[in-house]
């Protein structure tokens, strides 16, 4: 297939303005100081850059929150068709998976089809055995057109976030793009802290640079297609790593393209993984969860054997990693002919540690527009 480096806009080349929040779950607790965690991004696409400059204010916009096919089509034409890591049906799929807990707001210039901003939040509910835990309100994709002038657009999107339960409190966590002075200053102004907890990275490997390892030790690991295993096997393992309800989303992700579940000799789940294939030819490991590196490699080997390493069919393989463990990206080494590498895309900054997230088993995250891990 034709290489698309010059045509495709991808997540990691975007500017991230990302915040993720945990909102107070217990009605007996004050909502003035909710616990928070955040992720978000600001995307600039070629189609968005083609419009005329416009000053946005409250009196010249129209906000749509009940998103239908018309709005999804406009988003695709304006932004998402330029991205390498999304399908046209993804946002509708996410909405179906999360239901009323998936909040979207599209901002248009009044009386036109001109889209100038999108804002997405997902509310994650803790499992019942985590009594007293707070809801996690995750701010996913935030996009504001670079054609927009005026400070009111930030107030408009902030109001949308507050309506979804996303609010600023003393206990905060956020992702920032890099160590730039402006980014740090904005973060400190909002949250009162610039403590770093983790960094997030992306790695790309062209399919022509991939290989199938010949001497991989897979003893005692048994791989099954995710479509052929009970829901409970997948959901229970996921709940050990992310202790909030997202079962419908996880099952859909594992069973859409290429998904696998790994078992040990005792029939216990020890990992699962999936590769999503996008129209651009990009293939993303979303996710790879496993008890150890050997299991993660065995899962990926099974998936790539089915896909084949055809550079005419597939463009590149992408994974998202973190700095919690040294092997969060180096585990892929037996599959590449080149040196392993990664590029920092954001930093997790906070004044407390994550609740209900176990990074030790995360070798690649779910899609960062929908989940923090």
UniProtKB/TrEMBL annotation:
Pfam families: DUF1248. Residues 59-241 form the DUF1248 domain. Transmembrane segments: none annotated. PANTHER family: DUF1248 DOMAIN-CONTAINING PROTEIN (PTHR21471:SF5), GNAT FAMILY ACETYLTRANSFERASE-RELATED (PTHR21471). This is DUF1248 domain-containing protein. It comes from Caenorhabditis nigoni.
